[in-house]
Description:
By secondary structure, this protein is an alpha/beta fold. The chain has a domain at about 1-95. It has eight helices and eleven strands. It has helices at about 15-30, 45-55, 70-75, 80-95, 115-120, 150-165, 210-220, 235-245; strands spanning about 5, 10-15, 35-40, 60-65, 100-105, 125-130, 135-140, 140-145, 170, 185, 250-255. The protein is globular, with a radius of gyration of 18 Å. The structure holds iron/sulfur cluster (SF4). Iron/sulfur cluster binds near residues 176, 194, 204 and 223.
Amino acid sequence: MARLRGTGEALTLAGSFEEMAVWIAAARAAGVARVLAAPGPAGLTGEQVAALKAAGIDGLRVRLYAAEAAAHDWHAGREGSFRAATATLRAARAVRVPVTVTTPLTRSNTRVLAAVPGLVADVGALGWQVSVVAEVRRQGHGAVAPRLAVAVPYALQALVAAERAGLLAAIAGAPLCLLGPLRDRAVPSPTLAFAASCGECGLRASCPGVDGEYLRRFDAGELTPARSGEGSAAGGSRAKRLRDMFSGPWLGLSEASCWPI
Ligand code: SF4
C-alpha cells in the first residue's frame, strides 16, 4: 500500500520496491523534474539499484547514522543495516547513480560523527547532510535529540572535514545562531518553534527555530539572537548548490520500511 508524505517542497511516496519502479516511470511520464529513491534500513541490492537506474531515477538519498555497524544498526533498529547501507552506496557507485548521504544528528552519534565524512567520500557520494533530529522518543531508548550547544559544534567540525575530503556538506534543522561562520551551509528545513527572544532576531525569517518540546525542556539559553540586519542565512554559489542538492522540489520514493529515528 502506497503512503504519501509531504513537506511543502518535497513529496515522498512510500511503498514496496516493485511499486517504486512503477512510480519512477509514472513520474517521468508526468514530467517530474527530479525523482530520488531513499532506501530504508534494509538497503537495496545491486540488482535493485541497477533496476532503479534503468527506470530513470535521478539519484539515491542514503541514510547513514555512523561509520561503523554498532552505532548505525542501533539507530536503524535493524542488525545488518550498516552493511546494507554501505553495500547500497557501493552498488550505486558501480552503476554510476548519483548519491547523497544524510546523517541524522542524535545524542548518541554526536561523538562518532567525525568518522562519517571519510566513509561518505570513500564511496563516491556527491554530498553529505547532517540533519538535527527533533525531540523524538524511541521506545526503550528515551530521548534521542542532542543538546544543541554540545552537538552542533561536532557537526560543524565534521562538515569542515567533509569539505576537505571534497564533499559538498550541509546542515539542516539547526538554529542559525549556532552555526557561526558556517551559516551558509544551512539548507532549508521545516519550521519548528521559536523562543520569545527570537522575536527580535535578524535571522528569524530564514531560521528553522528549535523543536517545541526541546524548548520546553531546556529553555532558550543556548540561542543568541542576531542583531537586526546582521544578515540572511545564506548566499553565494555554494549555498545555492547545497539548496539544489538537499532541498527544492523533488519526488522521493522510499521503501515501506521506516527509519525509527
Ligand atoms: S535566536 Fe532564534 S531566530 Fe535567531 S537564529 Fe537563534 S533560533 Fe533562530
